Amino acid sequence: MNNLVIRYRLKYLVALVIMLLLLTMTTGLTLYLLDQQKQAARVINVAGMQRMLSQKAALHLEYVIIMRERNVAADRQALSNALQLLQSNHDFLTMRDGEEFVHLNAELSAWYFEQPGDLNNQLNQYLSLLSSTAEQPSLDQIQEIHTRSQLLLQDLDHAVLLFEQSANTKIEKLRNLQLLMWLVGLVLLIAEIKWIFFPMERSIASAIERLQQTRLKAEHANQSRAMFLARASHELRTPLQAVLGYLHLHRESQREGYLAQANKAAQQLKALIASVEDYNRLSDEQQPELNFHPARLTDTLGQSIATYRLLAKEKGLDFSYHFSSHTEKIFECDHERLSWVIGQLLDNAVKFTDQGVVSLSAWVEPSSPEEDELNWRFYCEVEDSGPGFDMAHVNAPPTENNSDRHHFQGLQLGLARCNLLLAIMSGDLTFAARQPHGTKASLSVPLKRLPEPDQVNGITRCKVLLVEDNLLNAKIIEKMLESLDLTSIHASHGGQAIEVLAHQSFDVILMDLNMPIMDGFKAIKEIRQTLALSTPILVLTANTSEQAIKSAMQLGATDYLFKPVEQDALERALIKILSVNDA
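Above: the chain's sequence. Below: its structure in token form.
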């Protein structure tokens, strides 16, 4: 916005400067024109005065001769004044500036100094004649003066005409120049309108439109976030209800299988919490990052089934599932998001089926006819006997008007997020109607099959420094490390960890980020810069902010895991960073 204001201000200043220059030039030209007119009027006035003075001097001389001795002194003074003024005016008209005449153009110069006019010579002779005759006048001289004065008057008349023509020519040129300046100003004004003001107007209109679109997007985002928050607690209650339900069943029957089902439901709850982060990324127009890791497909499918089998039972639905034998193998993919997508299909199947059945079938096949040991494809079908749905409702955005009919609900992400995640994983999702009613959802995802892991994990007898401020979390992680035959020391904040590291060495450091006294960011920086240790640092944090993880990695962290941390994920991460460190 600031750049836009600066750009408009510069354009406006350029337009003002151009108009100011044009106005200054026009004003200067007008003043120059007035000055030229004034000077031309003076020259023409002086030239016209020469005609009158030439005749006035002759009349004064005649009067001196006629009056003889009476009032001769006064008449002679008047004659002398006329002759001086005549000479002064002549000097003014023939004045030079260097070698150029000030008031004479080429035609006037020829008239004054060349034949047939030779006005300069005529006027000098006339003045000389008047001066000499005034001392000893005679009738012959008077006759000659009269004749010369008539001839001089005609030449002076022609000179005045030439002066008028010269002045008119100059004024006409100046007027044409003034008209040209007006035309230039008009052209500049049109150019400013076309290339400055019109683009400025379009830019302002475009900026206003972008602001309006941004405002509408912000309003839509706020509305979506409000709808999301309003439904989040409702949707999170489904796996939470399964967890509580299985724990209740365990308390009553003491069957260990219920604990396993509760754990699977908790995994589904974790997947839903992860979807919140994906929602934020989608809101910010960012693509979610996949977390590929090896796991058994039966465990991935079990997380979704554990949650919705209990919900289907409570609704009185017949819930069934079938896995092929290959699903027990280990495959690499983003198991957490795949579980979420399958959970969404089951969620909608159970939610919109009031009576009847909900079934799930899953199998894997090699990608090529030859049984490729690495590249496989996972297939899953979820069928229900519900009322079915209209694809127009599936593709429509969730609103207050259609939310009750929208087949994909969840955390108000639904089909859009399913399709996005499957597109990132190079998978696909299709829907088909069942007869006489119901829906079949089919998805497929490419997988990479991995060999069975060795029993020895390769990280035994390693020493771990756990930096965690939450004592409950610390106890849980310590138990996980103990089950992996790893010894650990607990530090409750970064400052305490620095003190421990100053006296002891460790094979790996597990670092929380948000802690009192000294947080994980500063602790990582101290470890890398002050202590100059290269010990691998595995960040364990509930802060899923991309900026926070980026900052930690830039400070020197080796890898990261988001809480809640599973033992399998922790083991894989430790094997990964310790194997790299040993290499």
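The two ends are 52 Å apart (CA to CA).
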